[in-house]
Protein 1
Amino acid sequence: MNQAVPPLAQGTLDRDAPTRLGETLLAEAWHDPRARLLRVRGAEIPIAAETRLALVETTGDWTPVAADGAVGHVFLGRIDGTPVFACAAAPGEAPESMPNADFQWRPTFEIAVRLDESERELVAAASALLRWHESAEFSGADGSRTRPIQGGWARLDDHGRELFPRTDPAVIVLIEHDGRVLLGSNALWETGRFSLLAGFVEAGESLEQAARREVFEESGVRLGDVNYVASQPWPFPRSLMLGFHAFLAPGQDPEALDADPDEISELRWFSRDELLTPPPGILLPGPLSIARWMLDRWCEAGE
């Protein structure tokens, strides 16, 4: 059974805004005997026993700013009341360099599907925050140095201006016509991999306008009804995927497809049977993506 909301969007992480707003509360959470720390090494996360996120005890002092001025510890929130923090590991840091650490570094996208939803949400929040801090060390307004505040959920520049993590909205569209859905293969992907058509929202554009524009640019077809379905954070590094279910505009020929050669190598209509049992050589979106969730949901609706 397809879950009610996409992966990474179930809300198991209590972001606990009141705690992040007070240094005393943050220090108390850090010294809570239950508190845990997630270390992230670039695009890798620490995994124990192949299926569990390796969280370690918090030790020493709560340190929001590292010795070199970079972000130190960030407060992710709470899982079942347990405070959880995150920090960036050094690029070459090995497990054996950490005390009482029995884990392996594994690529996030390879292993996250095996984690439970609360652990996935921790990884998503940590990835988004730590990547943002890497790019926000200096103010875009005047180039002054910024420093982390609010438990890592904001930064402050020398003039008192607050900076907050950016989220880039992107639409992703399930296009249905006569019992089939339209999928595209990105020009940068391996042959045979297909997904829903998607693209970033442009300045001054509504979500529905973006859906219609992106689909026309990538496939050459016009959409009729466009209805919002659900959203999914995709913080690798900072996207928010907004899912829509759409139908072709009246009079549109479903076979008159015109793929944008710079972005799409192939367009193809798929039936429910083909999605449930893909033909040889066809690869569908990964199980963590909203694209796969929407396709599974569409298939279930036809049962």
Protein 2
Amino acid sequence: MEYAISQYPNVNEVYAKLETLISQPIRPVNREKMKEYLAYFDNQCKRSKELTDEAKKIIPGGVQHNLAFNYPFPIAIEKADGAYLWDADGNKYIDFLQAGGPTILGSNYAPVREKVMEMLQSCGPVTGLFHEYELKLAQKIQEHMPSIEMFRMLGSGTEGVMAAIRAARTFTKKKYVIKVGGAYHGWSDQMVYGLHIPGTGRLEAKGIPRGANAKTREFYPNALGALKRQLWLNRFRGGTAAVIVEPVGPESGTRPVPKEFNQKVRELCDEFGTLLIFDEVVTGFRLGLGGAQGYFNVKPDLTVFGKCITGGYPMAGGVGGRREVIMSFAAGIGGVGERAYVGGTLSANPISCVAGYYAMIEMEKTNAAAIAGKAGDRLTQGLQAIIEKYELPFVAYNQGSIVHLETAGTMLLDFKHPLRLLKELKPRKHMMEEMGAAYMANGIITLAGSRMYTSMADTDEVIDDALARFEVVLKECR
């Protein structure tokens, strides 16, 4: 099986460059040029502004999804096709958001769309009863990920994490869950802990009772010694049911892990009788049909899926893994022992299952993950060349089709350096927002101005066009 990562990044080298970046003053876009970019939104995106201003009267913040909170205001998208998006004013953008990662084939991929439309002609979007493609999709996932002995489809990655933790606690009879500080595993009560910035604990847990995440713990990224100490401490107060990781590192590898990291976590979990959960919401199928677990050759006990599992179609999520753990969901129906309760009226609906199955079929046919990975390599190499040309402290690296361009270093601040965090979080966050706006004004959509997902639709011509647009922005940061 071919994977998207042609060469794993030198993690020590990446961190050295990132430390250099955040130890220096920020280098935002030239102030006069930034005024021009912001004027683009006022002059060229008037319909988007009208729509989102109206939406603010009835929708909190004016948008329903965190990815849509763009600076200076959200852009309303009307058309998606392959490598491009078009907004409500007719402006065309190169799409490196790709819906947050799931559309590896490119947006609105016709062969999948046609299969969904064909199904809608006969069955409709939902029946509430069993559909053949529930089975076909589960079998296809199992074919490529042998660790998935059984699979339960749900509605989102957040639900997948909730179910995985519930099953782990039911199966092990242990209490604690340990995550990597800064990682995002959805917004369930127990996982809004150490969110985005390591060491923050309950900082973001507004409206969440302390008891809900009282048994959640975090450790600093890549600090295996700290993980072992936490596992040892938990042994005396109820035990650790599971350790959950993003296998490329928190926030899709924004804090990348060394290549051997996952294997060492697997060994620690075995030593302490703890289940290992891989959150493959982004990496599942994006790194290859075998996911990150196939690339790293590490077998988790449970795997969480999200938007990747349906190729970008809605109601996308699930959890799979060891038979005896997943069977806890069926206790009282077709299993034995205590039951871990899960629900979801629209889970595994015909649209989701047909879309997911045929997206995987098309990825098999086209080798989409590897093609997207080559596009990520080309984009990263081009960005590195621009950074060197203009002698900028910025950092570009990739894990296949997951590409990082750190200009502000906002996501690298943490409580190990509390004064730097307090002093620099706000200005670095604002610079990151400005960079995202500058790219968008030049026809490129990114995730928060610092992360890009490439797809099979990103030909050499698309990438080279994007690099020319990036250079227009980056040369103004000298």
Protein 3
Amino acid sequence: MNQKKTAESPLPHPSQGGMDQGRMVSIPKIDHCLDSIQLDRLEQAFRAWAKQSPRTDIQLSRRRILVIFLLIRYTGAKLNEILAVDPLKRIDFNRQLVDLGNGDSETRSEPRTVRISTTLASELEQMFNDPPFRGFLEKQFNVDPGFVRRKFYERAQALGFPKKLGGPEMIRKARAVELMQRNMPMPAVQTMLGHSNMNLTSAYVSFSKDDIAQVTKLFIEREASRKTSARNSFFGKIQALQKGDIQTRVLLTTAGGDTIESVITNSSVERLSLKESRLIMAEVKAPLVILYSGEKEPECTAENRFSGVVEQINVGLINTEYIVRIKDGTSLCALVSTHGAQWLGLGVGDPVWAAFSCFSVVLNVA
């Protein structure tokens, strides 16, 4: 069902047709790049490798490679973009921004700054404040791209990963897939990767560049902290507030054009300072998502209903987890009893509706 893309291909758009028509993004098969767990293992391998040598000069050289890996891993930038960065001048630690300069005309990447988490910015600042390492970087990274690639390949192979999956271009691709699988809005992913031909649909008209930057900031910090157990998240903008005597109905539109409805108390509206056009994140826990098999929209009282396709099934002794890909590329996780799963009879690739009540939606602000 998914279309295979090269590492530097623009992210797919619905206008490309095929079975992905009507979807905002087609996520490559997971065996075409490292998944989040494998990326984390590779990161830890780089960290351990950077500390192994007793020689100071080798440690400094390895730490340089570690920094290059971390920047590609978390910005999704290309190797040549990172090597062109002066790490002592073009990383704003206070604002958590990496200035990637003038872009790349050959691969259609635009001039941009990319956000990193507060945690990573603090770590890099601490590393660069070490006098020997700071002196080592006085002439920027000053390293041959081929040498960097070899070191990436070596670390990947040491973990038993295919060599090609450890290359800088594939790490960039894996980061894009990771962000999309975690439901970062498509225009934010495209902006982060520097694609110039985003072809934003009318669903994005109300999302300005500043909005996308704010959504990216919220997502990156949430990803780094991982303080929530909710598996399903939507980033959007409040379109309407309908206040009642006790509770308020909140309607938000996601960057993919979907509408999410939530009902919260009036005191929560005041505490969160909610108003129309404010950016917000909506979360729903997996056990609160109800699945209906088939293509016909279910006749139910759940206000939030999305058609999609079953992408993955993880069967457990007590519960079964379903990953459903809806039309804009967002993934939803639903958790049902294994007995209920047998009754549903769903398989990978089957059409399905995912639904949840407005009372199941928790709203968070930046």
Protein 4
Amino acid sequence: MNNAPSITARTVTIQTDGACAFFSGSLVIAEVNRIVSGGAEILAGDVSTIDITRLTQMDTAGAWFLVEQQMRAESDGKDLSIIGGSEAQQQLIETVRQNLIEPDEADLRPQTWADQLEDFGRTVVQGGRKAAALVSFLGQIVATMAGIIIHPRRLRLTSVVHHCQEIGLNAVPIVALMAFLIGVVLAFQGSAQLRQFGAEVFVVDLIAISILRELGILLTAIIVAGRSGSAFTASIGSMKMREEIDAMRTLGLDPVTILVVPRVLALMLMLPALGFIADLSGLIGGALMSWIELGVSPAVFQSRLVSNTDVWHFAVGMIKAPFFALIIGVIGCYEGMLVGGNAESLGRRTSTSVVLAIFMVIVVDAMFSIFFAVVGV
């Protein structure tokens, strides 16, 4: 053995003699950490054998270190073998090698247009299955509600009232503030543009139509989706993690009747009320900014609002509200039912619930806008 350069880390020594690297001492996690943190190349490029006969101690981290060196050599097209050591050390190295996660070959090769087309197809199929599952869950909820209408005693009124407070009453401040600020922004931006044409008075029509027809109920639904939809998923998902829903089924209780229907009913009752509050707050904010920025007095604002705003603008927003509520409730409860047995699943399903609910609310709002435009409302 010659005196080739070596790496020493207190109790472990690596010496190279031609194509063989000799490990001696104790190869444990602390020594592996010191070697790796050094940043230098550990083995020379011409090394083809690692001899661990002189190792007196080796733990799992040491076995991982040896296997990692072997895998790096294989990735460079070289053959690196590990020889020597006791039977226990060889078994530990083999156990670590078998339990390492190997990279998927499909992830290593570049994607072709066929791979991208396949990924797109899989996404479409998964989306179709998700839509079918949501429709099936919606049908189960509707059937349960029909059974409650026939047998009203099945309705858990206390639960409905509790969720009405959580969804509606507790959300009034944030909804009112959001709508008020939206009205202020619309009036300010609208006045800046309409002043150029001497048509400042039309800012009333802009605010009224925008708030009553679209922004009031749409932004309210988005806030409720982020606030209550995620709460539905987290609450039901937590019960699913603790196996409380399985216990309900064991006792002969229907989770849809007990957990889902009260939440959906409360949401369908309270979202129109929150939309109405948002409309009022938005109009008040718009009127205040119009008075400050354009000098349109509250009396003029009110008279023009009453004379030039069709009641159908308000009705269009209120018609959308129950549909938005049903979408948020169904998606929130459905994702909660899919939560697995760990916190990672709960977080992932909660995020999916919020994103999917907001996306579907916007899609349905666009469909309603097209429909009302076609029928001339």
